[in-house]
Design a protein that fits this description.
The protein has 14 helices and 12 strands. With 461 residues, the protein is an alpha+beta fold. The strands form 3 sheets. The protein has a 5-stranded antiparallel β-sheet with strand order 8-7-6-5-9, with helices on both faces. Strands 1, 2, 3 and 4 form a 4-stranded mixed β-sheet that branches. The chain has a 3-stranded antiparallel β-sheet with strand order 10-12-11, with helices on one face.
Amino acid sequence: MRSIIRYPLFILLLGLMAVGHGVAQVQDNADSEPPASSIAVDGNPVSDQAISKRIRAIFQEIPALHNVEVSVQSGVVRLSGTTTDQDAAQRAEALVARLDGVVTIENAIARDVSLNSQLTPAWKESRAIVNDAIALIPLLTLALLLFVAVTLIGVFLAQRRRFWKRITPNAFVAELAATSVRLIFVMVALVLALNLLGATALLSAVLGSAGVIGLAVGFAVRDTIENYIASIMLSLRQPFRPKDHVVINNNEGQVIRLTSRATILMTLDGNHLRIPNADVFKATILNYTTNPERRFNFELGVDAADDPLAAIQTGLDALRSLNVVLKEPPPRGIIQQVGDSNIVIQYAAWMNQRQADFGKSRSIALTTVKHALEAAGFGLPEPIYRLRFDTAAAGQLDGLPTTDTKPGAGKKRANSGVAARQSTAREAQDVSPERHLEDKVEEERRDANQTDLLNEAAPAE
């Protein structure tokens, strides 16, 4: 029974606390609400006549409310007459409501839609605009002259090609600097002119719009901008010179020129190859021309029964006898692999590719070592295949001629006279560098209508 009585009492107590809190909050809000602003008439008690006089004085200062009539009776204000628009009527009612002593307002103001009332304000406003424009002509003229003068200074500085090339020898960077200076002077001229006219807000709007448009265009031509930036970096870094023999992402050829968008190569077949600069900037570049000394290597196999060290020495002696092989660093030979029927030896030697052709030199060296090994009695075996036959098949083969399958059988010879004649022929072979492709590249580079961002005097990075 106690629990039945206890819970309703507890709920009733909570309800009374909530009601008291709500009343206190309403009271606090009422106390904290600021009083409405008002316009005092004067220091004396407010009368209908004083209210009417004050309203008329206010309306006389506002052209749109000149035709509004006011009457006040016992604090009730009646507004009548006409205005050119409805906003003026609402504005009149708002002004009257702020006066002391006003009990209520009856707004009976009508809108004047006559042709004369509508055209007269428009004509006055247009005439005021024309008068302001005429008065602004001297200031506009001065602002225009200032803009043109500053812009011409920027154009004059941008056209000093020798000055920019003296500052930076890179033609692309010099052109970029000249263009940037011209653009900076145009922006400064625009800011000065608008500041003189007091139209800085317009300048902010124009710059903001230009920023949004520039961002949109930047996303649209992202690849072009990437190529442009890559061109700047490549022209500064100079990873290769004109006519260099390079390999760019498995594309081999000689460099013709570097443009603002692509790197142009002439392939070994004499064809033009254009690679976007963005790909070149990120690519792995192999330059064969930077270092004149280049190593070539090849492999030869000797019989498994032969002495590989003696074969290595014989091959090295043959390499040292060639004029195209450099003495320093000396040639070398190593055992690359030991097979079932032969021993593979790798020979390596260095040559100067500015004095001799790489492919011709390697071919002569390989041929010289091969004949030297054969002349010294080393066999160069071919792969051996073992065939098994059953008994019946073997009986059918009786009486047929047999061939010795011993590795290198019949291959060894020591005809020194033949080897000497072959060596003399090899020495007489032309190993001079191939100049035809280089001449074609030079002919392409002589085209004056094509710009090149590479500088032959600049070091390759």
